[in-house]
Design brief:
The complex is a heterodimer of chains A (264) and B (365). With 264 residues, chain A is an alpha/beta fold. Chain A is 36% helix and 24% strand. Chain B is mainly alpha-helical and 365 residues long. In chain B, α3 crosses α14 and α10 runs antiparallel to α13. Chain B is flat and about 95 Å long. The chains are: A alpha/beta (264), B mainly alpha (365).
Chain lengths: 264, 365
């Protein structure tokens, strides 16, 4: 994290995304918890294949925002379109969207009563109605991609935190989502395990997955993100491509945040 | 540069191992413990030999009436002579083979559940939960397939106890699960119905439920509409126990972290699938001790049907004790009844412990 300011010259070349292929469209979205206004007038377009990192102080609404995208939280005003489908109270639409959007949680949320393989094959079998052997074949394929095929028969409780999070990523990928949401995927991990999870996420990004990632890993933001979004008090304060975001923040609040997290 | 090599793991010191160490640590660890151990041994010496003498050494086993019980010991002759009555009640003697088949079926379903490697054990279990009650009902009631009908008022003894508790257990668990889910539902009407049901049945003593089922209900039914007393008692027991079961299951549901619901939802699983595949398997596993506790309570509560004139095993024992042709056989009779209850309750307890071990999959989350 500490060498971000000095490494501007090593930045990978910016990718040019095809304009117009918008997969997530958030317009004037507002959300309240009781009287508390958590998300204020959020507008965001995410392009196909775009990698977005969302950062901000705790309580700024960043997790809540990405949880609105697959309706784990309900927004009260404005609109959210995912892959052309609008999120409303319509259960059908919610189901369609959840099939296309994978999510990785801070605390992994693996199913402790099922083996790693069963965790991965469960949703394809029951939601996509795939035959068991196909679902398990694909599960093994993704477990190999996250480099833990040898743990397939174990239970989540027997794995380390980093391994569990990689299983969680594989579990999401087994549904072959078009978009992946990451909600602080490395915050609950020991320092030695953060890298193994980030490596998997970097690989995924390089394959062109559309990703929205709430994280405090600024190294990841700098090397992988197409765009960094900074949120505070339920609003998007500033968004920019990473080089400009880290080296030339325009808003004072962003400057303060960056100076605090990059201070040591 | 030095390489880090961990020290090898060593075996523990010998004095902390084996039966001798166990005795030293648990029975003789301090002067007070030595004194307590000696006291307990002396106490056992006072109690155990007379019991063994009464129950086995000087007990009477053979014979067919009171005259065979001349000695000081227990009169097991009484149990032997009355055994058929304790097991079948007033079920007609020439039809008792039907009850025997029902017992065999029950055994065929239950025994494999204690053998982990038994082939297709789960299917046997599924038959036990669905097919067995139906088959047994047809077998015991008769009236079809050339079987002579036997009124339920003639059922009794151990057979009646098992019918009441088995049907009660098999029906109360699923109803309890549905009620527990309903009580946690986000739909206010469903929630209200479930809360009312649970609080109503749970707030009434089982005795009054049985009384209402047998005495009051017929008063409210139109003339000519009347259904079996045993069936009414069964429904009363099921309603009563499912209210208890609902609260036990709800405890398990509340212990499942929110993240599990969210992960299931994020994968696209709907309400029923996430409950059936993710939440309930974990919740029920957590509350196995509570569920079995309720089952055991139900099993013993079935003795209350005695107050509405159904003769369960305890009632058949009591009826036989007061028979003037036998003297002083109350102890033997009650011991026998207690032993029957204990065997089944202990079996349930052991089964639940084995189930807990089998379903244990490491740490939570």
């Amino acid at each position: 994290m500490s060498d971000i300011a000095t490494s501007a010259a090593n930045d990978p070349p910016r990718r040019v995304l095809k304009q117009g292929a918008v997969v997530i469209e958030i317009r004037n979205m507002n959300k309240w918890y009781g009287d508390f206004h958590v998300l204020r007038d959020i507008n965001l377009d995410v392009l196909k294949g775009e990698r977005i990192v969302i950062c901000g102080p705790s309580g700024s609404g960043k997790s809540t925002m990405i949880r609105c995208i697959n309706r784990l939280e309900e927004h009260q005003q404005g609109s959210i379109l995912v892959d052309g489908v609008e999120l409303t109270h319509d259960v059908k639409n919610i189901e369609i969207i959840r099939r296309e959007v994978g999510m990785v949680f801070q605390h992994f949320n693996l199913f402790p009563h099922l083996t790693v393989l069963e965790n991965c094959a469960l949703a394809p079998i029951w939601v996509r109605r795939e035959p068991r052997h196909l679902a398990e074949e694909r599960a093994m394929h993704y477990l190999e991609r996250v480099k833990i095929p040898e743990q397939a028969r174990k239970y989540p409780g027997q794995l380390s935190g980093g391994q569990q999070q990689r299983v969680a990523i594989a579990r999401s990928l087994c549904m072959q989502p078009k978009i992946m949401l990451f909600d602080e995927p490395t915050s609950a991990l020991d320092p030695e395990m953060i890298k193994e999870v980030l490596d998997v996420m970097v690989e995924l990004a390089e394959e062109g997955m559309t990703m929205l990632c709430v994280t405090h890993e600024m190294g990841f933001a700098k090397t992988v993100a197409d765009r960094v979004i900074f949120m505070d008090q339920g609003q998007i304060v500033e968004e920019n491509e990473p080089h400009a975001f880290f080296n030339d923040p325009r808003n004072d609040r962003t400057k303060l945040f960056l100076s605090q997290i990059l201070a040591h | 540069m030095t390489t880090f090599t961990p020290k090898p793991a060593l075996p523990p010191p010998g004095s902390t191992h084996g039966p001798l160490a166990w005795v030293r640590a648990n029975l003789l660890s301090s002067p007070l413990n030595i004194a307590l151990t000696a006291l307990a041994l002396w106490f056992l010496w006072l109690i155990v030999p007379p019991i063994v003498d009464w129950a086995i050494l000087s007990a009477d086993f053979g014979g067919s009436d009171q005259s065979a019980c001349a000695s000081e010991g227990a009169c097991w002759t009484f149990i032997g002579v009355r055994f058929d009555f304790f097991v079948y009640g007033f079920y007609p003697a020439e039809q008792r083979w039907r009850v025997d088949i029902a017992f065999l079926l029950l055994g065929a379903v239950l025994v494999p559940q204690f053998i982990p490697r038994f082939p297709s054990r789960n299917w046997v279990g599924l038959f036990g939960l669905t097919g067995l009650p139906l088959v047994t009902a047809v077998l015991l009631m008769g009236g079809v397939a050339g079987l002579e009908p036997v009124e339920s008022s003639k059922w009794g003894g151990l057979m009646l106890t098992l019918v009441l508790s088995y049907v009660g257990i098999v029906a109360a668990l699923p109803i309890g699960v549905v009620l527990a889910l309903g009580r946690r539902s986000e739909m206010p009407i469903i929630r209200m119905i479930c809360v009312t049901f649970i609080e109503l049945w749970r707030g009434v003593p089982l005795i009054s439920v049985l009384f209402m089922a047998s005495v009051m209900l017929p008063l409210f039914l139109p003339e000519g509409v009347n259904f079996d007393k045993l069936l009414r008692a069964l429904i009363g027991i099921i309603m009563f126990q499912s209210a208890y079961m609902a609260e036990v299951v709800r405890g398990g549901l509340q212990a499942i972290p929110r993240g599990q619901f969210e992960a299931a939802a994020a994968l696209g699983l709907g309400y029923w699938r996430s409950m059936g595949l993710i939440v309930l398997p974990q919740a029920l596993k957590l509350v196995i001790p509570g569920i079995v506790n309720t089952f055991i309570a139900l099993f013993k509560d079935t003795t209350l049907v005695l107050i509405i004139g159904l003769l369960d095993i305890l009632a058949t024992v009591q009826a036989s004790i007061v028979d003037p042709s036998w003297r002083n056989v109350a102890t033997e009779g009650y011991l026998f009844a207690a032993f029957c209850f204990w065997v089944f309750c202990f079996g349930m307890s052991r089964y639940s412990q084995a189930l807990e071990r089998k379903l244990h999959t490491g740490h939570k989350r």
